[in-house]
Amino acid sequence: MSNQKFNQYNVFQNENESNSMMTALANRLINVRSKGLQTILSDFDGSEHKLEFVKNIKGIDFINDSRSSNPNAVWYALETMTKPVTWITNIEKVENITDSLITSINNKVKKIVVQGVYKNEIVDFFSNINKESFFIMNLEDAVRTAFYASEDGDVVLFSPGCHCAGTYESYRERGCKFKDAVAQL
User: Which domains are delineated in the chain?
Assistant: First the structure.
């Protein structure tokens, strides 16, 4: 099967997202929480930018999940986290935020860093979600803000939840920029 963007229902962007989502769904349905899905997924070929451990700085883990280009992928990423999360996102539309994603945000996320050009509805949504939220224009400042907002034992998760939309050519470039920003801390 190819990794092309074809699906009768256009639910998944490619085979990897399909496999990841099915794994997450199966995990949730049978309530198997003892196996580390992040570890399992990291063994697959081509796992760069998908729940990729980047570095630990002062007890804070940095995870590159630049491949998460839709809210379902963000939901999956959040569900795999076992530590309090400072989430860096680029979600552009409130209507893309599903009820299951809101549940994961409420259960897993400690602080939110919204990076990029955002609309008032996004500012209003994240300001009213009862999580400390920051609104930052560029990725380097978003990473720095997330680092200083986090504490020992937290994880900074870069899981954008949208396509690159002209800022970067691909999720790969975006993920590399995230890793570069972490390296500058």
Answer: 46-183 (3.90.190.20)
